[in-house]
Design brief:
By secondary structure, this protein is of the alpha/beta class. The chain contains 7 helices and 16 strands. It folds into 2 domains: 110 residues, FAD/NAD(P)-binding domain; 110 residues, D-Amino Acid Oxidase, subunit A, domain 2 (D-Amino Acid Oxidase, Chain A, domain 2).
């Protein structure tokens, strides 16, 4: 029977990075995923590293520390993750949005986030493709973009080099416990003895948590990304709400639809 000091479930960006960092501290880590590395959310999400949108508190502090790592991460991992620190823009289209953003930007500045308010002319000069109804924009030079699939693969490769074991295409079907403590992870291929489990399964985290009897209310939010033929890069920054990248992808919506993966033809018809 296999055993590990720590079992990490979910081999996306979060899971592979956690496995890598744990191994750096000397932990014996086994990573499990029911598919492959980065095969779920991390292969089908946008590439934005958006710092300016985080509200003050723990989320912002974690995002700030995460953003710092990206400047040297490619050298650390030994491969490209298509990181580009070109900044990010939030377009403002109504006066009510403008009033909200003025206060929001002030709060962000007080929290130490570098974000500024652009008027209509400055926004258009920054990003000429913006529509005429855009009356301004919020801009932060600290926002960036990264390829999440390559990031997952980069962390996984680095983790393997320092001893992390991987067991992909293995579904977790239970968590074994004794006297209130975890004793193992039950998979379709057998049980792995461990006392520590990291649940890094993203939108599936609630289902894994149910095995432990600890409720975790995770509501999946699904975006729709269109892929076009290759076109010239339209934005020089990450553009929140609708963004077109060098890889010709356009994020057009974000809906709370649970674990519903069907293609919504209505959204495609609208756009």
């Amino acid at each position: 029977m296999k055993s590990a000091e720590v079992v990490v479930i979910g081999a996306g960006v979060i899971g592979t990075s956690i496995a890598y960092r744990l191994a750096q501290t000397g932990r014996e880590v086994l990573m499990i995923d029911r598919n492959g590395i980065g095969a779920a959310t991390s292969s089908a999400c946008d590439k934005a590293i958006f710092l300016q949108s985080k509200r003050p508190g723990l989320h912002m502090e974690l995002a700030r520390e995460s953003r710092k790592m990206y400047d040297t991460l490619e050298n650390e991992l030994g491969q490209s993750v298509e990181f580009k620190g070109a900044g990010g823009t939030v377009a403002i289209q109504t006066e009510s949005q403008m009033e909200f953003m003025k206060q929001f930007i002030n709060n962000q500045n007080q929290a130490g986030i570098d974000v500024s308010l652009l008027d209509q002319q400055e926004a258009k000069e920054s990003q000429p493709i913006l529509a005429d109804d855009v009356i301004g924009a919020a801009y932060s030079p600290d926002d960036a973009e990264v390829n999440p699939l390559k990031l997952s693969q980069g962390f996984a490769a680095a983790a393997k080099r320092i001893g992390v074991k991987f067991q992909t295409h293995t579904e977790v079907i239970g968590i074994e416990k004794s006297n209130g403590k975890i004793t193992g992870v039950k998979t379709a291929k057998g049980t792995i003895l461990t006392e520590t489990v990291v649940n890094a399964t993203g939108p599936f985290a609630s289902a894994i948590a149910q095995f432990t009897g600890v409720p975790m209310n995770i509501e999946p939010r699904r975006g729709v990304i269109l892929i076009s033929e290759k076109v010239a890069r339209l934005f020089t920054v990450v553009y929140l709400t609708r963004s077109i990248s060098q890889q010709n992808t356009c994020l057009v919506s974000s809906l709370n639809m649970g674990l519903d993966f069907h293609l919504d033809k209505l959204i495609l018809a609208i756009y």
